[in-house]
């Protein structure tokens, strides 16, 4: 099945099983804005807990913060967002559709990369276990020719971005023969910059109102509170401040479902360090964050680091953690060495001293910062895409297809479904007793509608890792059947053993130990 078709099925699955809804759907929706349903909000909260605990519980020198969305407008002048928070946009004159110029060029690069990967895949199939991929890439004429094309285009693209050369970006699009996916034409406008911040007014009267912005990132709330946290927490360098919160960007080219939205949530940690040590910490956090992603068990080969073509105005090093979505490798987390740019800017614009007194060196200085920034919504989509699975299973001599979300057990919205085999003979009452005993610790669901097979399939599609069936034997010996989602294996255990078994499986401890 084509990856595009899989993605369409995933989007439909998200709605059908209460994960994600189009915002304001009864009014035909609002572009690039989504609501999380009853299962989606549980998964989202579990993702945030996995991140928060990995930062704040596992690191004694990282603490939390929750800063306001509205902030003083000068903050965004100091941070550079007023002047430099732009996307290069280009319009197709025939379809009237607008695109990000850099994304169009990245897709052209990806097509060249796909040609090389296709050659490698064909050779791998031909030579089997004896295949040496590295040697093939270094010697095959077709791969080398495409690599040369990729390198030349990549250099030209990076130079244009770094020079902010909008004319060159357009010329690259023309030279690559990039066509509009809607109209199929190559009739492009010039590339121009578009500021992504939402603005509004604060004040009791129109005359007295001042322009403020919905924050486009959560990081600045951490920077302006740096001294408050450092002093009240008696924090010593190095230390970090973690925050989860909403951010807003007026994305003109919002697409790929919840991958790029106008209202989204970020999980960011700013790690304050002594100047000169920032690149060492940058490497350490790169390693730590990649381990966090890989611990989920979606395959190490599906993750990679991607170096930035153009460094942001505040950075001296930057890398993305990318995951292989159905639509290609895309960013899920950014790790940046932000130097002392932000704190120095706020010190200058506010007129307040924002420095750290180092008792060992007996001097004050502005700390440098290493940032890890991850989008909750992108992480949500990555987990859903990695977990969505269609399997052929045998059922009474026939082959059926079951759709299952193989979510990591600690992240699953519903941990346990309890099902009476029939709706009589006291079995529903026993099932309710089991839920009453477990609901303080786990998110449980009672399910008695349809046949037991249909109920299993429904819970598979939701991603519930364990289904407990209460039958007539339960009344005799207080045992139940527990079914495991991924293997579909069933085992008989005492009701009294259920809590400890589920507790071990749903704990985040196993993920953290990885």
Give a description of the structure.
By secondary structure, this protein is an alpha+beta fold. The chain folds into 3 domains: 1-71 and 196-390, BirA Bifunctional Protein, domain 2 (2-Layer Sandwich); 86-194, Herpes Virus-1 (2-Layer Sandwich); 414-513, Rossmann fold, CATH 3.40.50. The protein contains 18 helices and 23 strands. The strands form 7 sheets. A 7-stranded mixed sheet has the order 3-9-10-16-13-12-11. Helix 14 links the parallel strand 19 and strand 20. Helix 2 (38-57) crosses helix 13, helix 5 (101-127) runs antiparallel to helix 7 and helix 5 packs across helix 8. The protein is globular and about 75 Å long. 33% of the residues are buried.
The outline comes out as: globular
- CATH topology value of the largest domain: BirA Bifunctional Protein, domain 2
> If strands are numbered along the chain, what order do they take across the biggest sheet?
3-9-10-16-13-12-11
Strands, count: 23
The largest β sheet comes out as: 7 strands, mixed
State the domain count. Answer: 3
CATH evolutionary superfamily of the largest domain: Bira Bifunctional Protein, Domain 2
For this structure, what is the CATH class of the largest domain?
Alpha Beta
End-to-end Cα distance? 33 Å
Roughly what fraction of the amino acids lie in strands? 25-35%
Based on the structure given, which CATH architecture of the largest domain is correct?
A: 2-Layer Sandwich
Mean pLDDT: 90
Report the radius of gyration as a whole number of Å: 26 Å
User: Could you estimate the helical fraction of the residues in percent?
Assistant: 25-40%
How many DSSP H or I helices?
18
User: Given the helix and strand composition, which structural class is it?
Assistant: alpha+beta
Give the uncertain stretches in residue-range form.
none
